[in-house]
């Protein structure tokens, strides 16, 4: 979506400029409004996507899919409570796959499958750890609350450098061996520079909100609408919102309950991010399946 990426770049820097007029409290409120509306909405049609991606429609049951989806969310919450370090590590891994997938880094090169699979994952990991690197103090505070360890060293710089080396190595390999890749890598490296500027010049919550909404959620909604309905228009957007309303409302109610119960306690931030992570787990796998089916259709045309 070249036209959208032009808009995304302008919108991102506009948000950075706009933020100079906000107080810290206003910034947090606006960021959370976007995350709790557009951010959650982009995962609100997962059950419909499951139905659409099913190869055997006869074996597809909405109630069964709903129950399985809820079980995965509750399992994610339980994992954050019982084994928070493992849960956090899994969340970072699946989120990296998710963010890299959204960039559409699928190739039909005659290269080992493990390299083709690792490439979008490394790209997503780069995005995450650029955000963590430029906001390490805030990240360490939140992670400490989640895993219930007062002080810890997260190796953010080391992981970022390792990921950058691996990503650069594969990029050089692709660039040297596959001509079609050369134009793609130039644009993707440019986007990484844009992300680095965004994360460097903004707070953790504002930088994440800009990336998550403008660069991830909105493009994902557009991709989902095209996948489900065939085209993107306002009528289909209305249908998309209507079909996802129940899921969106249930998520907001869950977050509201957490806030009412723990708003005066330090643990709320940990619980909030744990809840968002838990509802992210099933969504990531649904979108991965959608993107792979979309890519498979494209290669067959």
From TrEMBL:
Keyword Iron: yes
InterPro entries xref list: Blh_diox
Catalytic EC class: oxidoreductase
Hydrolase is among the record's keywords: no
EC number: 1.13.11.63
Superkingdom of the organism of origin: Bacteria
Cofactor dependence: Fe(2+)
Membrane topology: Multi-pass membrane protein
Chain ranges passing through the membrane: 7-22, 28-48, 69-94, 114-134, 155-178, 190-215, 245-262, 268-288
Subcellular localization: Cell membrane
Reaction(s) the record says it catalyses: all-trans-beta-carotene + O2 = 2 all-trans-retinal
Keywords on record: Cell membrane, Dioxygenase, Iron, Membrane, Metal-binding, Oxidoreductase, Transmembrane, Transmembrane helix
Family to which the UniProt record says this protein belongs: Belongs to the Brp/Blh beta-carotene diooxygenase family.
Function: Catalyzes the cleavage of beta-carotene at its central double bond (15,15') to yield two molecules of all-trans-retinal.
Name of the molecule in the record: Probable beta-carotene 15,15'-dioxygenase
């Amino acid at each position: 979506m070249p036209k959208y990426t032009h808009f995304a770049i302008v919108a991102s820097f506009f948000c950075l400029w706009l933020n100079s007029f906000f107080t810290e409290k206003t910034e947090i409120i606006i960021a959370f409004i976007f995350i709790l509306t557009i951010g959650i909405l982009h995962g609100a049609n997962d059950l419909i996507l499951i139905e659409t991606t099913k190869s055997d429609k006869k074996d597809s049951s909405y109630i069964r899919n709903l129950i399985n989806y809820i079980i995965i969310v509750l399992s994610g919450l339980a994992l954050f409570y019982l084994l928070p370090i493992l849960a956090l590590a899994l969340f970072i891994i699946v989120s990296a796959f998710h963010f890299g997938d959204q960039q559409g880094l699928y190739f039909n090169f005659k290269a080992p499958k493990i390299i083709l699979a690792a490439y979008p994952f490394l790209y997503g990991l780069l995005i995450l750890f650029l955000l963590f690197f430029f906001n390490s103090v805030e990240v360490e505070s939140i992670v400490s609350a989640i895993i219930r360890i007062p002080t810890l060293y997260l190796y953010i710089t080391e992981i970022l450098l390792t990921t950058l080396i691996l990503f650069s190595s594969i990029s050089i390999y692709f660039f040297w061996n596959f001509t079609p890749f050369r134009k793609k890598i130039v644009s993707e490296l440019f986007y990484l520079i844009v992300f680095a500027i965004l994360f460097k010049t903004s707070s953790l919550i504002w930088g994440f909100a800009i990336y998550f909404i403008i660069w991830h959620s909105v493009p994902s909604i557009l991709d989902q609408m095209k996948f489900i309905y065939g085209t993107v228009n306002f009528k289909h957007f209305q249908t998309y919102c209507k079909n996802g309303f129940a899921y969106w409302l249930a998520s907001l109610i869950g977050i509201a309950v957490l806030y009412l119960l723990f708003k005066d306690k330090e643990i709320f931030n940990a619980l909030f991010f744990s809840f968002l992570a838990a509802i992210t787990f099933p969504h990531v796998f649904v979108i991965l399946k959608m993107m792979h089916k979309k890519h498979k259709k494209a290669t067959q045309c």
